């Protein structure tokens, strides 16, 4: 598997420290060669729109493609949602082409069908569904071939009934949130195309404990929790905070920044979303790269000020990220959840001067350990 977070091969995992979801063509092909030598039958690649547009995956015949959702993201690069959508389509046209080729003899024994797995609730679902492929699996909560029913949520996970064809099976996820139920449906659609039974799918989903830096919780002995998440887009923030509100915390304390040299349009939107969903909002630095960090923070703060938040009361601008996290943790009380978004499990932060070592989770643990000093 190649993903934003890890590289995994036959049970051995290595953190992806490149800050790239999809590697260069050379490194990707090198990884695939290792897979072939070790007899790996299935490879999962998280294909970024940048990689598709830059042809990093050129020459790889994909058998299965999965559409989760297309939301406001990477518009600094693609410029418009239409161009972003069309770039995503390239992966599905790849699968469509694979569908009409004869399979190489080397993989004829591997159980799978060429298939497209599509989120029926995505804005562009119908356009993707029109792309030619013999097997298409639409998934969703109320519509589609693959559905989730009778959902119940808690901060510890989600329960739902997974329905496909004539079969239905109960699932208990160890990760919370309706968006993770959607992700579970997407993964289910992909492995169903590989001939995996519902019973084995249930075992796989229920054994999954989450991804580092994605809704990762650090508990404080003071009775509050700090949650670290990679959320970088308006849609991701909305889904994250909706999930956390469903857990009925005493208060939500949100820390929000935005990345430099990236989409500037989303900055005030993200600030507004966090301010609307939290009891206390703290705007801070994230990764400015070559931009003026204060300019980025002011753009985020502009969005937060659209709400009824008041500076110095429940809205703060703290330029130093360490101090912002420290302030949030020192302000937290039993039953609160402090939410720190943007960095996830990344091992470095890129400032104007260059990258520095920074693991958000270690920073949080260090600050919590100082509470009694």
Explain this structure.
A hairpin with a 2-residue loop joins strand 1 (6-9) and strand 2 (12-15). The chain has twelve helices and 16 strands. It has helices at 25-37, 49-53, 75-78, 81-99, 125-129, 178-192, 198-207, 234-246, 266-277, 293-304, 321-331, 360-369; strands at residues 6-9, 12-15, 64-67, 115-119, 135-140, 146-154, 157-164, 167-173, 216-219, 225-229, 252-256, 280-283, 315-317, 337-341, 348-351, 354-357. It folds into two domains: 61-207, Mur-like, catalytic domain (UDP-N-acetylmuramoyl-L-alanine:D-glutamate ligase); 216-369, Alpha-Beta Complex (Protein-Tyrosine Phosphatase, Chain A), CATH 3.90.190.20. The chain is 35% helix and 22% strand. It has 373 residues and is an alpha/beta fold. The protein starts with 5 loop residues before the first strand and ends with a helix.
Protein traits:
373 residues, alpha/beta, UDP-N-acetylmuramoyl-L-alanine:D-glutamate ligase, Protein-Tyrosine Phosphatase, Chain A, 2 domains, six-stranded mixed sheet, 35% helix
Summary of the model, kept short:
By secondary structure, the protein is an alpha/beta fold. Helices cover 35% and strands 22% of the residues. The chain has two domains: 61-207, UDP-N-acetylmuramoyl-L-alanine:D-glutamate ligase (3-Layer(aba) Sandwich); 216-369, Mur ligase, C-terminal domain (Protein-Tyrosine Phosphatase, Chain A).
């Amino acid at each position: 598997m190649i993903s934003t977070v890890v590289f995994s091969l036959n049970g051995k995992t290595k953190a992806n420290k490149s800050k790239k979801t999809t590697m260069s063509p050379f490194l990707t092909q090198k990884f695939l060669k290792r897979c072939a030598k070790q007899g790996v039958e299935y490879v999962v690649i998280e294909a970024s729109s940048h990689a598709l547009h830059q042809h990093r995956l050129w020459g790889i015949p994909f058998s299965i493609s999965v559409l989760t959702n297309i939301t406001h993201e990477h518009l600094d690069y693609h410029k418009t949602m239409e161009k972003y959508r069309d770039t995503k389509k390239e992966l599905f046209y790849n699968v469509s082409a694979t569908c009409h080729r004869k399979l190489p003899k080397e993989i004829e024994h591997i159980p799978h069908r060429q298939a497209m797995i599509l989120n029926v609730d995505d804005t562009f679902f119908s356009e993707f569904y029109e792309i030619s492929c013999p097997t298409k699996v639409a998934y969703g909560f109320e519509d589609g071939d693959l559905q989730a029913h009778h959902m119940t949520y808690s901060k510890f996970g989600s329960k739902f009934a997974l329905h496909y064809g004539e079969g239905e099976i109960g699932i208990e996820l160890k990760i919370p949130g309706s968006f993770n139920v959607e992700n579970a449906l997407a993964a289910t659609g992909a492995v169903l195309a590989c001939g995996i039974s519902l019973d084995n799918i249930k075992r796989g989903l229920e054994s999954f404990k989450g991804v580092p830096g994605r809704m990762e919780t650090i508990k404080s002995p003071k009775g509050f929790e700090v949650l670290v998440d990679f959320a970088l887009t308006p849609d991701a923030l909305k889904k994250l905070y909706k999930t956390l509100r469903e857990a009925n915390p005493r208060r939500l304390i949100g820390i929000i920044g935005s990345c430099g040299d990236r989409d500037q349009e989303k900055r005030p939107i993200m600030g507004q979303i966090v301010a609307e969903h939290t009891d206390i909002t703290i705007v801070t630095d994230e990764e400015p790269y070559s931009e003026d960090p204060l300019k980025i923070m002011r753009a985020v703060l502009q969005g937060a000020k659209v709400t009824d938040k008041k500076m110095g009361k429940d809205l703060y601008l703290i330029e130093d990220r360490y101090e912002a996290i420290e302030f949030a943790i020192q302000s937290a009380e039993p039953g609160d959840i402090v939410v720190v978004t943007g960095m996830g499990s990344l091992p470095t932060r890129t400032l104007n001067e260059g990258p520095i070592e920074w693991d958000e989770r270690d920073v949080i643990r260090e600050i919590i350990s100082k509470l009694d000093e």
